[in-house]
Structures are given as C-alpha cells and as structure tokens.
Design a protein that fits this description.
- By secondary structure, the chain is mainly alpha-helical.
- It contains 17 helices and seven strands.
- It has a three-stranded antiparallel sheet.
- Strand 6 and strand 7 form a beta hairpin.
- Helix 10 crosses helix 11 and helix 12 runs antiparallel to helix 13.
- The longest helix is centred in the middle third of the chain and has 38 residues.
- The protein is flat.
- It starts with a helix and ends with a helix.
C-alpha cells in the first residue's frame, strides 16, 4: 500500500512537471521566437508573428520586395502550440501515451520551422544580399527541449519498463523518420528547379553553364555511372578475392599482418586519397607510353582507379565477416564428398555468404557514388561527355564546387542534382536488394 501511494505521488509530480513545462511551450508562442538579419535590417519575430505576418520587407541592390513566410513555417509554429495544449488536456484526462505523442510532435515543430527558413534565405539571396543570418532564440529551443522532456515525463508515469520500451521505439522511429524526412526534403528542394528548367532539358541537356542559364546534367550523370561502374569492376573482384584469402586460405600469422593494412585503408581521409591520386596516379597516367600526348592525367581513368582503391576496405571487411559466418560443417561436408578446397570455396562458401557479399558490394557502390573530395582532385572537373582519358565532372563534384557561391535558379539546380543522385543511389540499393532476395529464394528451392 505504501509503495502504491509513493508511486501515485511520484506520478502526480511527473504530471505536474509535464503540465508546467508544456504551459511554457504554449506561452512561448507569444515571445520572441527567431531573429532574421538581412544586411542592415533586423526582424525580431514571435511565433504569433511568424504565423500571421505576411512576410519581411527586404531592401537590396536598389530593389525592395516582400519575402513571404513559408506555409510550412506558419503551420509548424501553430502546430507546436496546439500539440502542447493537446498534451496538457490528454494528460489531465489520464491518457499519458497519447499525451507523450502530442508532446513529441510539439518538440519536432521547431525543426520544421528551421528547415523552412531555407526558402527565405534563397529569396533574400536573389535580391543580391549576401549577408543573411537567422538566429534561434530561447523560446525556440525551449519548445524543442520541452516537448521531448514532457514526452518522457508522460510515459514515465506508466512505469520505468514502459519508458524504456518507448525510448527504444522512439529511436527506431527516428531512424526511419530521418530517411523519410531526407527524402521529402530532397524532393521539395530539387523539384522546383526541374519544373522550371524542364525535365528533358535538365536530364538530357549536354551543357552545364550557370552564367548562360544552361543546366544540362547528362555529362555529369554519365560520368558518375562510368566512374562507379569502373570502380566496381576493378574493386569488387579484388576485394572479394582478398576476403577469400583472409577468411579461407591465409595462415593466422599472415592474416594478422594484412588486417591492420585493410583497416588503415578504411581510416584514411578522402583528401589523402586525392593527394595520392594527384601525386602518383595522375602522373603515372600522363607518362604511360600508350597515353602520352593523349591525356593531361586528370581524367575519368584516374577517378576510377582512386575509387577502386577506396571501395576495397568496405568490400573486404564485410565479405570476410560473411565468409567466416558460414558454418564449418558446410566445408567439411563438401570436402567429405571429394571436393577440393578451391571448389569448396567457390561452390559452397561464397554461395552461402552471398547475401553478406552483396551487402559489402552495396556499401562499396555507395562509397563510390558519394565520394567527392578525392574525385575533385583527380578528375579535372570539366562537364564533358565521359571518355576514359578525358576530364570529367561527377554529380557529387558538381554540387561541392558550386554550392558555396550559387544563388537563385543555379542553387536550386544544384539541389536538383542532389535529387538525381539520391534517386540513383536508391535505384542501386533496391536493385541489389532484389537480386539478393531472389538468390535466397532460389537457394531455398
């Protein structure tokens, strides 16, 4: 009985704290929420003003315009207050789980407001105002932290076990939600440029010249495909055979010497790979007899070679782990039937580890597609149609080289390149997953 009374008393304290914190979130709607600085003009706005004001009057380069507040920002600010109020009501009516959900949603809304302000920055930049600053004030941070704290307190009233289960659920939802959020954001940021330029002109145009208003990325797409394919063709066989050597045939003493080298490759920064490419690979291509007088060294071939080296650690590590996970009974059964060790490796061990090997290949392909710094240093960075000895620009390098000074449609077009790159990676991952599952079903039959 005493324990029950103590628990009830603790729960009342937790509910009181949650209600008090959430009341603060409701009142913060009327306090200074964010500060916007456009050159010499400063706007200090509350959540109420963000939700009701038409926009900001901005002056720059002889132009004056009203920059509208995004609909997402308005909706997010209002939702933050409403969800906090809903959490209070649900908690009073003894619905702590639903109250926790409402509080969590209230805590997310400041992040949506912050993300939506990118469109304000873009609109102000188009007025040739480079000095744009956005500051989040303490009510903004209070809503974010308070929503999370109230959600924890609400679930905690159900007991420590329920709180632990909810924390595990929240982190799993964060992982899924992050992917969904990135997907939505990339589509929202890249779609306007594609709509303005034209899908056909954007994807199949052969000229990329921001100053002339030409935004065709076909050379970038083909260069990325060629670079990734070349790196996979070179790196995957070497990586798999290295993993087979380490897992199946190498003596333990030798394996202990090779492992640190593989791990060292995985830990080397991209810029070091790029420097190695500049100092070793590019001069080697330039001085190689068949290529003399035909290349400057910076080329698609150099990018392929450096990417092939960079994907090796991932493929080797994952493949080796998968091969070691194959039960020893499989190998013993194969050898007992008269198969040689080599046949056992290629007919038993590798097929049994197929799903793990494909996972390593997928990770390697993702590394090759997403690599930027090393490729910038060896590829030449000219948006040409890809040739083995010609200078090229990949999708990632196109974004990295121009994003720092891009504005207006140019900036939106770079986001659209990011959208194409995102779809490219998704297609590759889905294709490998389909192949892997199909192979597993065939083995089961």
């Amino acid at each position: 009985m005493k324990n029950t009374r103590k628990d009830r008393k603790k729960n009342r304290v937790k509910k009181g704290m949650a209600v008090a914190l959430s009341l603060g979130s409701v009142f913060s709607f009327f306090l200074p929420y964010m500060q916007f600085v456009f050159k010499d003009t400063t706007y200090l706005v509350s959540g109420f003003q963000l939700a009701t004001a038409k926009g900001f009057r901005v002056h720059g380069s002889g132009l004056s315009a009203v920059v509208t507040i995004p609909v997402l920002a308005r909706a997010a600010v209002i939702s933050g207050m409403l969800f906090a109020a809903a959490g209070i009501i649900l908690l009073i009516f003894r619905k702590p789980v639903f109250a926790a959900i409402a509080y969590a949603l209230s805590g997310i809304t400041p992040l949506l407001v912050l993300i939506s302000t990118t469109s304000i920055q873009t609109a102000v930049t188009q007025l040739n105002i480079s000095k744009v600053s956005i500051y989040c004030l303490w009510p903004f941070l209070y809503v974010l932290a308070g929503g999370i704290a109230c959600a924890v307190l609400s679930v905690w009233t159900q007991g420590a076990e329920k709180l632990a289960e909810s924390i595990f659920l929240v982190f799993s939802c964060v992982s899924i939600g992050s992917v969904a959020f990135i997907t939505v954001y990339i589509f929202a940021a890249g779609s306007p440029a594609i709509a303005q330029i034209g899908l056909g002109q954007f994807l199949f145009g052969r000229e990329w010249n921001a100053e002339a208003g030409a935004f065709g990325i076909l050379p970038l797409i083909l260069s990325s495909v060629a670079g990734t394919a070349g790196a996979v063709l070179l790196g995957v066989p070497v990586g798999i055979l290295t993993a087979v050597f380490l897992a199946e045939t190498a003596k333990p003493q030798l394996a202990r010497l090779v492992h640190p080298a593989i791990e060292l490759l995985a830990g080397i920064p991209s810029v070091v790979y790029g420097f190695f490419g500049m100092q070793v690979i590019v001069p080697a291509i330039r001085s190689f007899p068949p290529f003399q007088n035909h290349t400057i060294g910076d080329s698609l071939l150099a990018a392929i070679l450096i990417l092939a080296i960079m994907v090796l650690p991932t493929i080797v590590s994952v493949t080796e782990t998968s091969l070691k996970a194959v039960p020893q009974a499989y190998r013993e059964a194969s050898l007992a039937l008269g198969a040689t060790p080599v046949i056992t490796i290629f007919k038993v061990s590798i097929p049994a580890a197929r799903s793990g090997i494909l996972a390593g290949v997928i990770l390697g392909v993702g590394r090759a597609i997403g690599e930027t710094m090393a490729v910038i240093m060896v590829a030449g960075n000219v948006a040409n149609m890809p040739t083995l000895l010609g200078t090229v620009r990949l999708l990632t390098t196109g974004i990295a080289m121009e994003m720092s000074y891009a504005s207006g449609l140019h900036r939106q077009a770079l986001f659209a390149i990011g959208l194409v790159l995102f779809l490219f990676i998704m297609i590759v991952n889905i294709s490998f997953t389909f192949i892997s599952r199909r192979g597993v079903r065939m083995d089961a039959r």
